[in-house]
Amino acid sequence: MLTLKRFLLFWISTTLALWIVDGLFDSLRFDQVQTLFLSGLILALVNLTIKPILLLVTLPLTVLSFGLALPLVNGLVLLGVAALVPGFEISGFWMGVLCALAISLVSLLINMATGISNVRGQVHVGRASGGFSARSGAESAFETPDDPNTIDVEVREKSNKNKDLPG
What we know:
Blueprint: H1 2-24, E1 28-30, H2 33-48, H3 50-57, H4 59-64, H5 69-84, E2 88-90, H6 93-114, E3 119-125, E4 132-135, E5 139-142, E6 151-157
Helix pairs in contact: 1-2, 1-6, 2-5, 5-6
């Protein structure tokens, strides 16, 4: 039951990310709301099943390109979903790659906000008076910034026993 609940959350977050990116780019278009939900469902299923296999197959290319092949794979996956779903259109390959990058970023933010992802982050605005200080070994604490011209970000992965879905 937990897996089904997590999949539904993953589907909703993917659909929400598609909807947000649709609002950002004119090159990505959905004819109807049903098309948006169907595209979100298929993209979530592809990301959970086919995409890990694609990443494994393209691993040598990814290593040789220092990771630059990953956005291309993401763009191809998004274009494949657009080809499967009638009413979902992307204007071209490079726009598919750009939209895939935007969807990945928006999905990460949504998953961090909802707790689906294991990644946690903090943003501190201002000057750090002392920076990061070690406390109890691996943990770190950030002292309060007081200069509004500085932005510091701390991101770390939270350990989670239930890793049913990728974040």
